Amino acid sequence: MSSKEKTSEELLLKEAVVTQNEIVLHNDDVNTFDHVIETLIHACEHTAEQAEQCAILVHYKGRCTVKTGEYKDLKPRCSMLLEAGLSAEII
Predict the structure, then answer these.
(1) 62 in a domain, yes or no?
(2) Is 62:26 a contact under the CB 8 Å cutoff?
(3) pLDDT tens-digit profile of 31-75?
(4) How far is CA 74 from CA 34, 56, 78, 89, 91, in A?
(5) Strand 21-26 to 87-90 pairing
(6) Is residue 14 situated within a structural domain?
(7) What is the pTM for the complete model shown?
(8) Closest CA to 19 of 62, 86, 74
(9) Residues 63 and 55 sit within 8 Å (Cβ to Cβ)
(10) I need a surface site. Which of 9, 37, 82, 89 has the fewest CB within 10 A?
């Protein structure tokens, strides 16, 4: 086995270990579309269009994954959503 093949194999193994989590935003009867959109732009670094689409999905489907990544990146973002009065969780 060449060193190039061995390096590629090790890289593939490391990539498989990285776990992706999701922030899921849940619908509520309290927050306005504007508040949800502004909060997603701030907390999740969404574009206005992304945030609006997520708000619509949450409204009609009841929930929407708004951010995917490593837990350590998602935790402070989810905290910002919760502090803003939104209903969110990391799964």
Answers:
(1) yes
(2) yes
(3) 999 999 999 999 999 999 999 999 999 999 999 999 999 999 999
(4) 22, 22, 6, 10, 10
(5) antiparallel
(6) no
(7) 0.81
(8) 74
(9) no
(10) 9
Q: Which residue has the tokens 């899921």?
A: 24
> Which two tokens mark 38?
């502004």
In a domain, 17, yes or no: no
What amino acid occupies position 12?
L
- Would 15 be classed as within a structural domain? no
Residue 76, pLDDT score: 98
On the CB side of 11, CA atoms within 13 Å amount to 6
The domain of 62 spans: 30-91
Q: How many CB atoms lie within 10 A of CB 51?
A: 22
Angle value at C-alpha 12, between 9 and 24, nearest 5 degrees:
170
- For the chain, what is the domain count? 1
Which residue is listed with tokens 């990539």? 15
